């Protein structure tokens, strides 16, 4: 994307080589989704003013879905609501995931059986240009970068944590954003906590964070995210332990199994998920500091699985 290249250079980067890309030579004569987005935006603001939280959230969900559909991959799975007997009778290699929602029922995701494509299937083909989502994402990055430039976030440690459409910054930077005309309660950036704010935060890895929020009413609330971990199992002690350089572990049910001899087997024992602390520690250390402590070669690249392992019940979790 040309805009991606422009943003990299604007932030002080240097383009060495371009391997592949898409040239956006001409805009759409009619902006896709524009009318729908404006309707949903106006409705959401209306519901907000009326204090209708459900209506406001529904409009937000519909707006996000328009974008989500534009980058959606082809779907090769289907979902079912099955009881345990039906799940056992149909449990085979096509079952990808299953989630127990109450004592008797499961939401089951299965692979769709391959079949020959005919002309009758053409009516279900998605006609959205596959590259449209890339342009939308590129533009959203450009908007986000406007906020980062104003607080000099590319050159100074002004940002505690960031996600696709959010920045966790100090309240002192709010005035800078306000002077730049980037914040408001309607169409631009806003404080999700209103007149309140975060008084304590731990930002340990992507999608792993813990906040204590002081609301405008003087009430303390806990906001936590831990990808790969159930919210009902994670506690503040786990975040502190991980931040202190210690591994965090918990027990989860083992997945079902199927064999020719025993059929469907529902294990009674547990498996242990271990979230390892070294990913967080290494990322917060200066470059090449104590590198030998972690058995990594100099070209080692981290990925999302570097802080998560799954071990059997009888294994030592902290080797």
UniProtKB/TrEMBL annotation:
<dbReference type="InterPro" id="IPR017964">
    <property type="entry name" value="DNA-dir_DNA_pol_B_CS"/>
</dbReference>
<dbReference type="GO" id="GO:0003887">
    <property type="term" value="F:DNA-directed DNA polymerase activity"/>
</dbReference>
<dbReference type="InterPro" id="IPR023211">
    <property type="entry name" value="DNA_pol_palm_dom_sf"/>
</dbReference>
<dbReference type="GO" id="GO:0006260">
    <property type="term" value="P:DNA replication"/>
</dbReference>
<keyword id="KW-0808">Transferase</keyword>
<protein>
    <recommendedName>
        <fullName>DNA-directed DNA polymerase</fullName>
        <ecNumber>2.7.7.7</ecNumber>
    </recommendedName>
</protein>
<keyword id="KW-0238">DNA-binding</keyword>
<dbReference type="InterPro" id="IPR004868">
    <property type="entry name" value="DNA-dir_DNA_pol_B_mt/vir"/>
</dbReference>
<keyword id="KW-0548">Nucleotidyltransferase</keyword>
<dbReference type="GO" id="GO:0000166">
    <property type="term" value="F:nucleotide binding"/>
</dbReference>
<feature type="domain" description="DNA-directed DNA polymerase family B mitochondria/virus">
    <location>
        <begin position="16"/>
        <end position="148"/>
    </location>
</feature>
<keyword id="KW-0235">DNA replication</keyword>
<comment type="similarity">
    <text>Belongs to the DNA polymerase type-B family.</text>
</comment>
<dbReference type="GO" id="GO:0003677">
    <property type="term" value="F:DNA binding"/>
</dbReference>
<dbReference type="Pfam" id="PF03175">
    <property type="entry name" value="DNA_pol_B_2"/>
</dbReference>
<keyword id="KW-0239">DNA-directed DNA polymerase</keyword>
<dbReference type="InterPro" id="IPR043502">
    <property type="entry name" value="DNA/RNA_pol_sf"/>
</dbReference>
């Amino acid at each position: 994307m040309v805009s991606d290249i422009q943003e990299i250079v604007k932030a002080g980067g240097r383009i060495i080589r371009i391997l592949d890309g898409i040239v956006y030579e001409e805009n759409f004569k009619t902006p896709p989704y524009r009318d729908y987005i404006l309707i949903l935006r106006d409705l959401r603001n209306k519901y907000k003013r009326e204090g209708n939280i459900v209506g406001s959230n529904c409009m937000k969900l519909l707006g996000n879905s328009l974008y989500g559909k534009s980058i959606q991959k082809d779907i090769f799975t289907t979902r079912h609501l099955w009881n345990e007997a039906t799940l056992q009778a149909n449990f085979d290699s096509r079952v990808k995931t299953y989630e127990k929602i109450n004592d008797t029922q499961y939401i089951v995701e299965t692979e769709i059986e391959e079949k020959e494509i005919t002309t009758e299937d053409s009516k279900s083909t998605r006609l959205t240009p596959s590259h449209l989502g890339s342009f939308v994402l590129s533009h959203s990055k450009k908007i986000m970068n406007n906020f980062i430039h104003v607080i000099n976030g590319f050159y100074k440690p002004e940002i505690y944590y960031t996600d696709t459409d959010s920045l966790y910054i100090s309240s002192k930077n709010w005035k800078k954003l306000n002077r730049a005309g980037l914040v408001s309660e309607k169409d631009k950036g806003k404080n999700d906590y209103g007149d309140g704010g975060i008084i304590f935060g731990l930002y340990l890895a992507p999608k792993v964070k813990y906040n204590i929020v002081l609301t405008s009413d003087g009430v303390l609330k806990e906001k936590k995210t831990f990808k790969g971990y159930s919210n009902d199992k994670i506690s503040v002690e786990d975040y502190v332990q991980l931040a202190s350089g210690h591994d965090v572990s918990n027990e989860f049910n083992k997945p079902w199994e199927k064999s020719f001899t025993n059929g469907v087997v529902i294990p009674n024992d547990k498996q242990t998920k271990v979230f390892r602390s070294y990913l967080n520690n290494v990322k917060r250390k200066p470059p090449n500091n104590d590198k030998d402590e972690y058995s990594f070669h100099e070209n080692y690249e981290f990925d999302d699985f570097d802080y998560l392992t799954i071990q059997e019940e009888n294994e030592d979790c902290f080797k």
